[in-house]
């Protein structure tokens, strides 16, 4: 979640925090042209002002330095922006798994809007059976109008080489970075990966992904059941999402299967809107509340406690009335790749309606971050023209109406049903294993083959989206008031 958002300039308000060193730091910013010092100083200031775990990092304490010179010597002692950023995080990799720093915020902004260099093959990478080194890939889905579609790739296609190299744990991070590469196709029968000898060359272009991949009404045993595969909470597609729910309502949908199995998250406002479309009967009730670091929490509690509350809505961010279904049950498909805003929907809805989770355990991200730039108020306007560094620190955690948060290990499904890489099925087809399980629970109709119960359990390593900087982000894009902090 983010209080300062890249996704909607209309709601990007100035979040002005003036640290006790601000005036003096302004005079030291250039440090005789030392841009690295400037970036290091910006990183300390931003983390001191906003970092969720600031209270747990002694070097970020408001009284850590007695003088401006002492603080400047501290930030200048780090050899790189990456070094100081990493050193100031609280238990990175365990407690804080998600804060990050980028050296190109232009590319980051594009990614937040769903724009990437993309060949259309959304894939996952999995260790071979009985191996923790060799890897094969599987196609999760194919984006329309892309190289992958042109080449005839479909969900479930297996591949095990890139440019003739076997994919493995040492090389997979680099094999897919080129704008064009060739994959070697294979088959997987549940126990063995067998190359076919066929190859497919894919080419990336700049592409804007519509996160609404499938939105269909299925008539099953006389019931109209909505199926929505939604792959990212991307703000500029909120109106299309609302239109999809308008069609569900027009079709008389009585149950909904929400497929978030590959959804890494995104806009919190989109997550609230989606949850309000699923329901509609709880407008104004608490969806989630927020907990910030002690300085920010105290400010909000004293000056505007309502800013700590996110409520169910009845309109989109553009003011369009929501098309709501007023459901009391929702069936949500998940995997370990379901994260952040996806988990927010599950956790936020749980106190209000019957949420049936089917598939795998989710990522475990209940925290929110915001994009901070090197400017006087950490906003995009006035960002230092000498560099393009920005950071994405965690700034708050979300708590549902029952007080549930801190699900570090993820949200556990009611029905555990791992994906079978040898039988992934067709998305939206009533016999696709995860969708079939949901339909069976809704209607008892008996769709799909019996779930796989034997064979080795395979470990998924990564995927295309998992290698992007913003993976697993919750983008908090609700408006904020201006205020001045006095952190000493």
Compose a concise summary of this entry.
The chain is an alpha+beta fold. Helix content is 22%, strand content 26%. The protein has 3 domains: 12-90, no CATH class; 118-208, Pdz3 Domain (Roll); 212-475, Alpha-Beta Complex (2-enoyl-CoA Hydratase, Chain A, domain 1).
Question: In terms of topology, how is this protein built?
Answer:
Layout: E1 18-19, H1 22-28, H2 35-50, H3 68-76, H4 81-87, E2 100-102, H5 105-112, E3 115-118, E4 121-127, E5 135-142, H6 147-150, E6 158-162, E7 165-166, H7 172-175, E8 180-188, E9 193-203, E10 205-208, E11 212-220, E12 223-230, H8 238-250, E13 255-259, E14 266-267, H9 268-278, E15 286-292, H10 294-303, E16 309-311, E17 329-334, H11 341-349, E18 354-359, E19 367-369, E20 372-373, E21 390-392, E22 394-400, E23 415-416, H12 433-443, E24 460-463, E25 474-475, E26 486-487
Parallel strand pairs: 1-26, 12-13, 13-17, 14-25, 17-18, 18-23
Antiparallel strand pairs: 2-21, 3-10, 4-5, 4-24, 5-6, 6-7, 6-8, 8-9, 11-12, 15-16, 15-22, 19-22, 20-21
Using brief descriptors, characterize the structure shown.
26 strands; globular; 7-stranded antiparallel sheet; disordered N terminus; 6-stranded mixed sheet; 488 residues; 3 domains; single chain; disordered C terminus; 22% helix; 2-enoyl-CoA Hydratase, Chain A, domain 1; alpha+beta; Pdz3 Domain
């Amino acid at each position: 979640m983010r209080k300062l958002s890249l996704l909607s300039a209309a709601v990007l308000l100035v979040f002005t925090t003036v640290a006790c060193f601000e005036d003096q730091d302004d005079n030291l910013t250039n440090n005789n042209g030392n841009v690295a010092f400037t970036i290091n100083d910006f990183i300390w200031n931003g983390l001191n002002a906003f970092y969720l775990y600031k209270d747990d990092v002694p070097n970020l304490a408001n009284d850590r330095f007695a003088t401006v010179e002492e603080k400047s010597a501290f930030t200048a002692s780090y050899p790189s922006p990456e070094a100081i950023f990493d050193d100031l995080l609280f238990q990175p990799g365990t407690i804080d798994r998600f804060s990050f720093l980028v050296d190109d915020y232009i590319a980051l902004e594009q990614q937040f809007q769903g724009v990437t260099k993309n060949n259309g093959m959304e894939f996952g990478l999995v260790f071979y059976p009985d191996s923790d080194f060799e890897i094969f890939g599987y196609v999760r889905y194919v984006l329309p109008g892309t190289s992958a579609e042109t080449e005839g790739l479909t969900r479930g296609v297996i591949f095990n080489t890139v440019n003739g190299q076997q994919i493995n744990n040492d090389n997979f991070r680099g094999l897919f970075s080129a704008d064009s590469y060739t994959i070697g196709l294979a088959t997987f029968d549940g126990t063995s990966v067998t190359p076919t000898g066929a190859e497919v060359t894919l080419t990336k272009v700049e592409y804007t992904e519509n996160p609404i991949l499938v939105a269909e009404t299925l008539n099953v045993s006389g019931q109209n059941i909505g199926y929505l595969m939604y792959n990212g909470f991307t703000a500029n597609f909120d109106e299309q999402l609302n239109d999809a729910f308008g069609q569900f309502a027009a079709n008389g949908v009585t149950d909904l299967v929400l497929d978030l199995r590959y959804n890494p998250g995104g806009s919190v406002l989109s997550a609230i809107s989606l949850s309000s479309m699923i329901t509609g009967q709880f407008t104004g009730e608490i969806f989630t509340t927020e907990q910030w670091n002690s300085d920010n929490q105290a400010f909000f509690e004293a000056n505007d406690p309502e800013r700590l509350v996110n409520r169910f809505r009845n309109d989109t961010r553009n003011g369009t009335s929501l098309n709501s279904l007023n459901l009391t049950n929702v069936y949500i498909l998940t995997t370990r790749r379901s994260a952040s805003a996806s988990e927010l929907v599950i956790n936020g809805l749980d106190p209000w309606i019957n949420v049936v989770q089917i598939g795998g355990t989710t990522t475990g991200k209940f925290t929110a971050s915001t994009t901070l730039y090197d400017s006087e108020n950490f906003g995009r306007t006035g960002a230092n023209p000498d560099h393009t560094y920005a950071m994405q620190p965690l700034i708050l955690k979300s708590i549902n109406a029952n007080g549930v948060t801190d699900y570090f290990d993820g949200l556990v499904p009611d029905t555990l049903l791992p994906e079978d890489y040898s039988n992934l099925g067709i998305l939206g087809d009533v016999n696709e294993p995860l969708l079939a399980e949901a339909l069976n629970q809704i209607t008892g109709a008996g769709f799909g083959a019996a779930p796989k119960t034997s064979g080795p359990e395979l470990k998924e390593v990564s995927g295309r989206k998992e290698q992007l900087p913003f993976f697993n982000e919750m983008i908090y894009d609700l408006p904020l008031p201006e205020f001045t902090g006095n952190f000493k």
